[in-house]
Each structure stands twice: as structure tokens, then as C-alpha cells.
Design a protein that fits this description.
This protein is of the alpha+beta class. 34% of the residues lie in helices and 20% in strands. The strands form two sheets. Strands 3, 4, 5, 6, 7, 8, 9 and 10 form an eight-stranded antiparallel sheet that branches. The chain has a two-stranded antiparallel sheet with strand order 1-2. Strand 1 and strand 2 form a beta hairpin. Helix 3 packs across helix 5 and helix 5 crosses helix 6. The protein is globular.
Length: 253
Amino acid sequence: MPAFIVFFLILVLIPQDYLFAEESLLRIANIQNSLRDKPLGERIAYWAESFIGKPYDTDPLGEYVRKEVIVADERMDCMYHTFRSVELALSTTPEDAIKEALRLRFFTKGIFKDGKVINYEDRYQYGEDMIDSGKWGNEITSDLGKVIEIKGSRGKEKVSILLKEKATKSDTLKKFKDGDIIFFIKDPDKRVVGEIVGHIGIVKLEDSIPYLIHASGAKDGKNKRSDAGTVRKVRFPDYLKDMRFAGIRVVRF
């Protein structure tokens, strides 16, 4: 397909209010092309890091769902940040990233009509459903260390997790790779609506140390940071020590 036709289709599919603030569509496409030969994990980590500093989306429904759009990059929650990072990494053009979004964000498949997504009720609303779908890579939790079973919910009697204490061990930390997606598991007593996953982030290695890139709105407690309420990057071992979750589950493409 000629480049000018692809560009026209992109302009039709993506409302202009929701394009990258700093980068034109052509720049996004150029970056995707430059990353084409990189391993997928590195591409996922790259795009995750590219969103650092983006404000946190405080809409409990999600701004992208509220507006029935695919691209809403001005603000991000942890699920949308994961969606976009992976979709851009898996694709070679911004248009292909939209196709990946329609494939990945839904139990079945997203339907795009007249510039809007018309079936967001079919979307993944819970992180655990992303893991169990098989669309979001292979679960590698048990490869990282000894897992235990804790109480499940939402139709699951049990769920296997790597406990916080196990995840912080040096031999476990050495096993993480670029682009690993971390799902943080809530203590059964702290679940509000039966949700098992309470947060999601993406790994990027720097000098063999895993860092966590994630969108978080936390602004209190130990997290009184100037960049709270944004997408940010933190040393994963430090995050594990202070986190409020019982443990983790991990997937890898």
C-alpha cells in the first residue's frame, strides 16, 4: 500500500486530539521502522520508556474507554500504558498499532466504526484476564522462582503467584528481561471488587538491573515524589521492597 494512503488512513482512524503531543505520526512510524530489527522485548521496553512523564489518567473508567477511542496518549493508567507500549512494539506503522489494539484489548475483537470503538464492553477490565487470555505472551512466573497458591476470585478458586519476598532475591531479579510485563497481585483481604491484579508495569534492564516502568497515581505514604501521578521509571528491587501487593505474576512475549 502506498505510503500516502497509509498516512491518510491513519489520519482517519486516529482522532487528531489524541495523537502524540511531541511526535508526529511520521516520526512514530520512523521510530517503529528503526526498531524493526530489535528483539520484541527491547521494543516493548523502548515504547514503555517513551511515555515517561505522561500524566496519570484518574478517570476510573479510563479516558480511552470514556471517549471510545484507541489512542488517548495525553494521560495514562497502568493498563493503557501497557496496551500502547505492546501495540506499538508489535507493529511497524501507527495504523498497524490500531489493528493490534483491536486484537489485544478485547476478549473477542474490537470493532471500530465511524472513528469510535463501539464494543468496549468486551474489553479486558481486569489484568488477570489479560494473563489468562494467552494474547499477552506466555506466563513465566514459575520460571522465576517457587510459586505459592493464594485465594482467587471472579471464578478462580486459586491463583499461583511469586511472593514479594521471593521476587526480591538476587537470583530471581537476574532472570527478568526487557519487556517483561509484571502483574502485581492483591492480598485477598484487600480486594475491592474481586480484582486479583492491582497494578501493571513493564521491565527495562539497565546495567543488568531491572527497572519498572509504570503509570501510577500514588501520591501519598512513602511515595511522596515529584513525579507521582505520572508514568515513571523506578528500580524494580526498590519498588518490590515498598510495594503493598502480596506478589507478582509475569508474562513475556
